[in-house]
Amino acid sequence: MTSPGEHNLAVLAEKAFERLGDYESLFFEGKWLTSGEIHERSTRVAAGLRAHGVQPGDRVVVMTMNTPEVFISYRAIWRAGAVVTPVIFLQSGPELRHILTDSGATAAIISPELVPLFSAAAEGLGITTFVVGDSYAALEAGEPAAIEPRADDDLAALLYTGGTTGRAKGVMLSHRGLWESGRGIELVSRSTTATRSLLPLPLSHAYGLIVVIGGLHSERRLVSVLQRWFDPVGWLKLVAEYRLETSPVVPTMLQLLLAQPYSDYDLSSLQYFGSGGATLPLAIRAAAEKAFGVTILEGYGCTESSAVISAETITDHRPGSVGKPLPHAEVAIVDGEICVRGPGVMLGYWNDPELTAQTVRDGWLHTGDVGRLDEDGFLYVVDRLKDLIIRGGFNVFPRDVEDVLLEHPAVQIAACVGKPDAEHGEEVVAVVQLVPGQQVSGPELVEFAKARMAKYKYPREVTVLDAVPLTSVGKINRKAVRDLVKIR
């Protein structure tokens, strides 16, 4: 039986600094920050938040680009006993208003360029707002604050799902859940010798958040170079200049990097990529491993599982799988669906006990993903249950179609969805984005897929787009794709 607060994330951050000491740990846009500077500033920001009325359990929105203040603010919010509520800055006004209202946030930390959007969305809500580079400095003016005690099952973060299948839902994650998932990520990195990483992920997403927490578990001095927002050319330049060894990515980032003149850069320092957020097509994995001379370690999880369930390691990996369940996660396949049990499972959906009861049953989180476990315990993700296309009574998984289309050398990104059809119920259709400089027509891609797939599976329509719609974290936005194919 653990003692209350043993997994407090503020304690984790404090111990990390005590263990590793002061060193240059974070590089951002021409400036190095030391671990000591980040730690000390976070203790002062915690005191500033308390002085401005933030109480334990209060939700504090963090809505910024990727900047060092994200690292500082997360630590400070946990130190003050409050709840990190990350918001990706690519929100519409109504979406942001919903999150602010639903969460009941009392304070917010935002980037200066987001002030107009935030102010309009927060009108009348009484949220105390601190702007990075301006009023944020006032938070750091006082003396350092001590850590506010929190129990293991206290709320540490409230993350809102992307809302591509409906209105965004608040996912409640505990201190222990995030602590355990972060340790799982650190165990993966421990299987490598890499210590210098490039962070292009939005830190306001579950994947980015757990990468940050994973670093707090490390026994090694880790160095991170932070990108304000993912830019493939900038990514290549940073890897070459700072001899970076690893980078957490999502599949679309790899696809965009492969489209660049990457051979013009010295990328010989790279050792491995961690890939998550969406299933990685085998063709893209093989191409990226060959192009960049790396091993790709794929992982799997969802916001409701504190971001991570399984992952490959350097010593234990199998292409096509998403690795083995990490120590904190017990996985079972129930009627084809991936279910998980353990401390990482969310406390529930904020203000929605009915949906919580539907999603977590007898302690098991039903992920909504179709998968299987092989005889050696490796987990494979087939597709999303909600994305399943049923054509004339036959099940078609979009990933199968996308993988085939991605085999065509002209296709950079592919997205497959079901389109309502009077005869078959649903028809299989797809949209693609081409590699710059390449040409192929939609009908040609239909014939390409037809020659490689069962008759009921291949897409009857393929539309070439300038850009396949993506979410703010680089995943295919299937809702937007469905809207596109319905109106064409």
Shape: globular
Beta-strand content bin:
25-35%
| Class based on secondary structure composition and strand pairing | alpha/beta
**Range of helix content:** 25-40%
Using the coordinates shown, work out and report the CATH topology of the largest domain: Rossmann fold
The value of Rg in angstroms is 22 Å
**Spatial order of the strands in the main sheet?**
11-12-13-14-15
CATH architecture of the largest domain: 3-Layer(aba) Sandwich
Low-confidence stretches: none
CATH hierarchy, class of the largest domain: Alpha Beta
**Count of helical regions:** 15
* CATH 4th-level superfamily of the largest domain: ANL, N-terminal domain
Total domain units: 3
- In whole angstroms, the N-to-C terminal distance is 59 Å
Overall pLDDT level:
93
Annotation, overall tally of beta strands? 26
Query: Major beta sheet, specifics?
Result: 5 strands, mixed
Structural overview:
This protein is of the alpha/beta class. It has three domains: 9-174, ANL, N-terminal domain (Rossmann fold), CATH 3.40.50.12780; 178-342 and 358-385, Rossmann fold; 388-487, GMP Synthetase, Chain A, domain 3 (2-Layer Sandwich). Helices cover 32% and strands 26% of the residues. It has a five-stranded mixed β-sheet, sandwiched between helices. Strands 16, 17, 19, 20 and 21 form a five-stranded antiparallel β-sheet that branches. The radius of gyration is 22 Å and the shape is globular. The N and C termini lie far apart (59 Å).
